[in-house]
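S2.1 Query sequence (Glycerol uptake operon antiterminator regulatory protein)
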Amino acid sequence: MLKLEGVLPAVRSMKEFEKVLKSPHENIIYLETRLSQLKNIANYTRKMGKKIIMHVDLIQGIKVDEYGLEYIINDVKVDGIISTRTNVISIAKKYKITVIQRLFALDSHALEHNLRLINNIQPDYIEVLPGVVPGILKEINDETGIPLIAGGLIRTEEDIQNALNGGAIAVTTSNEKLW
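Output structure tokens follow.
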């Protein structure tokens, strides 16, 4: 399992991709890509000595089922995946890679429902969006005991510090200035 901490750059475009590869960050999260780009992105990322965490729900051109995950994990060779879908998390855990369950804390009902699912599946990490609500981060951490990553609406250094103080071990952001 990858050790995730501090700021984790989340890349959405090729321009950001080139920039983050030159950064000192070891782990890179790829949020959006296309099937035709997967292998090239992964190969170049590995060549630069970095680890690949792919948000599999956002890959255009691939169905994320058992066979799609088999391709992403065995052929593309990612180090970890992110998904909002519990069935994807459950399948990915069988492959012994880092598995991050993305949770949207929209309201109390959604939070309770997601916590029940997460407690059954036990991902390696939980990414909570929005990540700017430290009280919710603490509640989720207390309920699950699973390391938390805060993401979404992270716009300032203060947001990062508040999330870390609220119990997150890491923060994802696509804001290049915070990388």
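Strands lie at 6-11, 27-30, 33-34, 51-55, 59-60, 80-83, 98-104, 125-129, 148-150, 168-173. The mean pLDDT is 96.
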